[in-house]
Amino acid sequence: MTAVLQTRDLAKSFGAVTAAADVNVTVGEREIVGVIGANGAGKTTFINMVTGYLKPSAGRIYFRGRDITGLPPREVVRAGVCRSFQVSQLFRELTVLDNVLIALGMLREPRLSWLAPLATPAREREARALLARYTIEEHAAAPVAALPQGVRKLLDIAMATVGAPSLLLLDEPTSGVAVEEKFPLMDTVMAQVAASGAACLFVEHDMEIVERYAARVIAFYDGRVLADGPTAHVLADAEVRKYVIGTEIHRSRAAA
After folding, report:
1. CB 94 within 8 A of CB 144
2. For residues 156 and 185, is the Cβ–Cβ distance under 8 A?
3. Which residues pair with 252 in a beta bridge?
4. Structural domains in the chain?
5. 188: closest CA among 154, 211, 163?
6. In this predicted model, what pLDDT tens digit does every residue of 181-204 receive, in sequence order?
7. How far apart are CA 144 and CA 123, in angstroms?
8. Confidence class of residue 98 from pLDDT cuts 50, 70 and 90?
């Protein structure tokens, strides 16, 4: 397996509190990996370290064999690793199209300037094409503040992919999304991931989403990797049922 991402003995401490320890993860080309764990288990800490938002206390991070440990987020993005956030990082007062134009400008320009227009004809065509791929072009002129949560999530994820990343990390992509919207949203996202050829890790609490879209699952508990393997095997693991998804939840799903 060709490794897109490798972490070796990755750790993060905040004073006396250990948020992550001995995290060894390898992700191959085109892999779709679900990341699960209770609140505070270390999932987002792991994502934040990989994407440069937190500097590890120990260990190394390799992207396609290149050591990216401690690089700032923008350099990590330019290397080919992008992410979305649990709480969408959008300019609420601006339109959907303007948000994408800003993302494109930040990617292409070393420093944005008020003297250089973001909305060039070529860039606007590129932004509209991206919105169309994520099925939200009809909202291009709408202010972000007026959007349903599902559309905001799709916009945030679309903006994370403007640089055509080789590795996409999604932090709770269906959080706050209506039940009837979650599968169409993930269908759209996963279709674009497949079309791009990227590998994808997504943090998720909804086990229905994990079961449906992840070929492999990494379960975190107490800052460490509790289990890592094929989805069905990890979700059936006794310790994962006990510490992550709950035995009763697992039994009720099995009986359904």
Report:
1. yes
2. no
3. none
4. 3-89+165-255 (3.40.50.300)
5. 154
6. 999 999 999 999 999 999 999 999
7. 20
8. very high
